[in-house]
Design a protein that fits this description.
The structure is a homodimer. Chain A has nine helices and three strands; from the N terminus they run αβααββαααααα. Chain A is mainly α. Chains A and B meet through α3, α4 and α7 of A and α3, α4 and α7 of B. The first copy, chain A, binds a DNA duplex through α3.
Chain lengths: ~230, ~230
DNA sequence: GCACGTTCAATTGTTCAACACTTGACTTCG
DNA sequence: CGAAGTCAAGTGTTGAACAATTGAACGTGC
């Protein structure tokens, strides 16, 4: 009787999920304007329902709504990236320090995210790699055992993922990151939490620097910067 | 030319603000069901607009939407309180540790929140006291200089405030808390951040304990507990 | 009296069509 | 060339309608 609940969700929620997926997959790139009528028609829903969906996503930060000017896929500024990584450090590090390796369910999931990451990298499937990477980090947050925090963190990860899948990554080699993730996992399961946290911090700094650098390069051409 | 922006907000946002206010003021108590048609009519807006408003508030956690069963004002469980206070500790303490007393604007606002708190307590105006108390804490978060965090924290405070304004407080004397707040402020401005953080942590623990205790007492009678 | 299925009004979920308002681009005129 | 006016496109909002679900009242048979 564990998961016996029926999964009836509103159409608006489903539409939001579909759009969220498209955004996170990079199918809808930052800056893309979304028009209510054609979009609603293409999904076979009414305009009102579409509005509810965009309302959801704009509150998640994935869409930006300008009154009377419509919604568009959000575009991260360098400041946004810095903000998000500040939060990631602030949330992930205590999570690791509070990690309890007896929570075998979480550890197991982290393990499989790690495996998925490595497989994706070897298969040169960058987007799946990004997904697994971020899932890896999201799972760390589980150690806080805090629903609100998980949901908030999920949003952050959504925003940063949106920035990641778009960048040009020809000059980057994801292989380099496999040992880092693997080591984080090892330290975590070994209970060497301090070391783990230190490595994680370094990894996050590195990740932020890389993303910032690449985004700065991209900024010059299509740059409708978002000051907020 | 500082604040030259015109305040064009959608009706849905305004309706959300009104309802938010009513909830936070305790006018709409936890558990109260909200019916779309009468509520929309009473505010002179259409049902669709009201739906957008409730959508906003449900994503903020203030309303809980059950499909085909309508929305109701959220009801905190003890677990919710614990979760929220865990986050408060996690966010406020680093904020204080990162406090920069040269940010005179923030310090100034904290000072006036403190003053407002003391005045409200002396006037026996509990609800205003709660408001100023929470504003005091919200301002601490400013030291992180992180918009996303401020907004998230604001939501948390909203939830906890909803829990606070409802409780029976005849057996509580808010005066007791004035010296604590004053001392936190003093330590903060004096740059004694470690001590300040310690006192703050203790204050938060105390606050959580008190709220939990009172809520537990209230739980017995009207308790439609919200497991989530 | 009680368990069960049925009916039914109330409420939410969703759609549709219409209109008001804003915006940005285009045009016109000085 | 620039300022003011024009206009279509798109969003914001409304009101009415219908479908789907719920909870309760009701009735039936045991």
């Amino acid at each position: 009787m564990e998961r016996a609940q029926i999964h009836r969700v509103s159409v608006a929620d489903q539409v939001a999920s579909i759009l969220r997926q498209r955004i996170l997959d990079g199918e809808l790139r930052p800056g893309t304007p979304l028009q209510e009528v054609p979009l609603a028609a293409s999904l076979g829903v009414s305009r009102n329902t579409m509005r509810e969906a965009t309302r959801i996503l704009s509150l998640e930060g994935l869409l930006k709504r300008s009154i009377h000017r419509g919604v568009a896929v959000s575009q991260l500024s360098l400041k946004d990236v810095h903000e998000i990584y500040h939060l990631r450090r602030m949330l992930e590090i205590p999570a690791v320090l509070a990690a309890d390796s007896r929570r075998t369910d979480v550890v197991q999931e982290i393990r499989s995210a790690l495996d998925g990451y490595e497989r994706a990298v070897h298969a040169r499937d960058w987007m799946r790699a990004v997904s697994f990477d971020l899932q890896f980090h999201t799972l760390l947050i589980r150690f806080h055992q805090n629903k609100r925090l998980e949901s908030f963190y999920q949003n952050l990860i959504g925003e940063v993922r949106m920035g990641m899948v778009v960048v040009d990554r020809t000059h980057d080699n994801p292989e380099r990151l496999i040992p880092v993730h693997r080591r984080i996992y090892q330290l975590l399961t070994a209970g060497k939490l301090k070391q783990c946290a230190a490595l994680l911090a370094q990894h996050l700094d590195d990740s932020e620097a890389r993303l910032s650098r690449v985004m700065d390069g991209q900024m010059s051409n299509g740059g409708t910067r978002q000051t907020t």
